[in-house]
Amino acid sequence: MFLKRKYLVVLGLVVIFSSCSSSDFTDPNDSRYDDLDDIVNVPSDVSLSVDATDVVNINSEIFGVNNDWRQIPNSTFPNFANTLDNINYQLVRYPGGWESEFYDWQSNSTPGWDNTPSTPGASVETLKNNTNNYSIVIPTTKAMDRSVGSEQWNVAIEALKALANEAIVSSNISDGIVEIGNEWWLQYAGGSDREEKLTKYVNIAMELAEYIEDEFPGHTFKLLINGDYTHPEEFTTMKSLFIRAYDAIDGVALHTYVGYDSDTHNMADLEQRITDCANNFNPNNNYIYLSEWMPSRLYNDYALYMEAANIIPDIIHIYARAGANAGAYWPPINSSVPGLGITNWNYSKIFPVGQIFGELSDSYRGKALKTTSDRFHLAAALQDDETMVLFVTGGNQNSAKVGISVQGFDIDSIESVTRFVPADYSETNLAEPYLTETSEATLNSNNEVVIEVNKEGKFQIYKIILTGN
């Protein structure tokens, strides 16, 4: 434990000799006699800040994970679920991404899907037997490929209603999440342009929402539309086209693939875009599910393994500050996107992205605090009235003393400092778990928590626990 240090500027040394008497005693509660001998002035090179008066509640379900029906066979799904338990997951998205558009809920198969595996993935019964919380995706492709209002369209809509019913009943989704479709803007949709795709999708979503409201009156699950977070204006268009069953939609599902090195999917705009998408569709019914996300390689100078793990705390912090209700990381299996997966093919190794995900799920709870970052990134949460957790990521920055100014929270002690470091500083994109070390921090005369980040090498992550009030 590192005691809070008080600061005293000594201008000179004055020795006072005085006589002692029974009435001339030293009051131990007098501030003049407080402990001052351990105070040091440690300057910082970089200043970050956290404001404990500006808070947003953290929803634990942001720590969800996508299933990968193609990569995770039915027979090994229990082992996969055990691995997820080890990283404190809160939700599984099922069947997954694109497989959801082709999934047959009765036969546990994906007819018509180009990527159908030789061995089927987890059945809905296997899902229910091994997980406590999950969301489902109901398909839209059958109608997306048809012309709105045509006979083929009408047949497809009826087929989609039947599939939606089967999915909801067989999954026993209860108070979970039902997502209408997967990435309509990327579907072929019979060769339609983007505007036509949007119109088709809205018509499908209206039909399904209206049907679900009639078929499952009083349901407690959240019913969400899907959309592209890089185009918040499209949610305004969808609102204008949603002339039926508008109030049946509880919010939006977004796929927030993001990075520091992108004009189209940049981290700087992420929080605002998330809230804009939800509010543009319905500011009074704005549940937010970030149902696919990752620090994309193309948007982060091809960051892999420990390099990618350094981006995760910043993303999670933005999600929490945006008021996201739930999330599901993708990919769960590393072979889908090498360097960004949570675990390997047989679940025997958790990679750095999975490790930091688990660390955040365990510790980043309570209230998300407003932070400012400069070169190094800071995520902060108030676990309770007396405990604050800070995550500082070093990334590809050179070594520096980082000072973290804390406002609205009086620090009593630096309870613990843990450091997560690459398995090999000379190869920070190595396909190996990171190492965990005990480290130290100092509270300087400017009331800053000071740590030296990346001194031994780049891509360090610091976790600091503060106590106070």
What is the secondary structure topology, with strand pairs?
Elements: E1 2-3, E2 46-57, E3 64-66, H1 77-86, E4 91-94, H2 124-130, E5 134-138, H3 141-144, H4 151-171, E6 177-180, H5 194-215, E7 222-227, H6 233-241, E8 251-258, H7 270-281, E9 287-295, H8 306-309, H9 312-321, E10 326-329, H10 352-363, E11 367-372, E12 377-384, E13 387-393, E14 400-407, E15 411-421, E16 435-438, E17 442-443, E18 448-453, E19 461-468
Parallel strand pairs: 2-14, 3-4, 4-5, 5-6, 6-7, 7-8, 8-9, 9-10
Antiparallel strand pairs: 1-15, 2-11, 11-12, 12-13, 13-19, 14-18, 15-16, 15-19, 17-18
Helix pairs in contact: 4-5, 6-7
Describe this protein's structure.
With 469 residues, the chain is α/β, with parallel strands linked by helices. It has two domains: 2-19 and 41-54 and 370-468, Immunoglobulin-like (Sandwich), CATH 2.60.40.1180; 59-364, TIM Barrel. Helix content is 24%, strand content 25%. Strands 1, 2, 11, 12, 13, 14, 15, 16, 17, 18 and 19 form an eleven-stranded mixed β-sheet that branches. It has an eight-stranded parallel β-sheet with strand order 3-4-5-6-7-8-9-10. The radius of gyration is 26 Å and the shape is globular. It starts with a strand and ends with a strand.
